[in-house]
Amino acid sequence: MPVIQVKVKPNARVSSLERAEDGTYLAQVKAPPVDGKANAELIALVARQFGCARSAVHIKVGGAGRTKLVTVPDLD
Fold this sequence. Notes:
The chain is α+β, with helices and mostly antiparallel strands. It contains 1 helix and 5 strands, in the order E-E-E-H-E-E. The protein has a single domain (3-71), classed as 2-Layer Sandwich (Conserved Hypothetical Protein Mth637, Chain: A), CATH 3.30.1200.10. Helix content is 18%, strand content 32%.
């Protein structure tokens, strides 16, 4: 499974996921970083972007930080 690096900005006006020039991703999520709400929204956002199920996306490292390593399934 590929791993992507995502920098998360919670409490945004609009949810979005954009790829930066260096290959990392910037995710802006509406949810606050409370009780895992921002992480849940991030997983849904990544799943929608890559066209896979939410259950296939996992936060590997950084569950409590803003920079996370997220695993996504191979989409060949």
